[in-house]
Amino acid sequence: xxxxxxxxxxxxxxxxxxxxxxxSTIRMLKSAITLAKIDLKHDPSDNDVLDIIGKQIxxxxxxxxxxxxxxxxxxxxxxxxxxxxxxxxxxxxxSVDEVNKIIDEIFDEVKPEGIKQMGLIxxxxxxxxxxxxxxxxxxxxIKERLSN
Length: 148
What we know:
By secondary structure, the protein is mainly alpha-helical. 78% of the residues lie in helices and 0% in strands.
């Protein structure tokens, strides 16, 4: 069963269970997938859907940070619930140690001489961690290594 089928099945189950939080989150996700379908001019692949889910999670994490600054813990907790629901569709996440090993392999292949090779390293890293680790966090790790 691909991710889109699983999302549709979960939508039906949330309707039956009258789970408002899950239902609204899945509907929002389906809307984002529909927009991507229009932009791509074809049905999004599982990797495209994983990217969409990752973007939705990132948007919510950014919003949680802003809501926390404004002492709006009610909205922050609502967005955290949505993140928890969206995370169930992602594959098993990589640990920081696992990502560091992958980065080590890429450094051995590319042999970067400075920050100018950042794009080349990210180009190699992105398909290896897609949907399984935050690219922003990976970028921070690489920048730190390149600056040392």
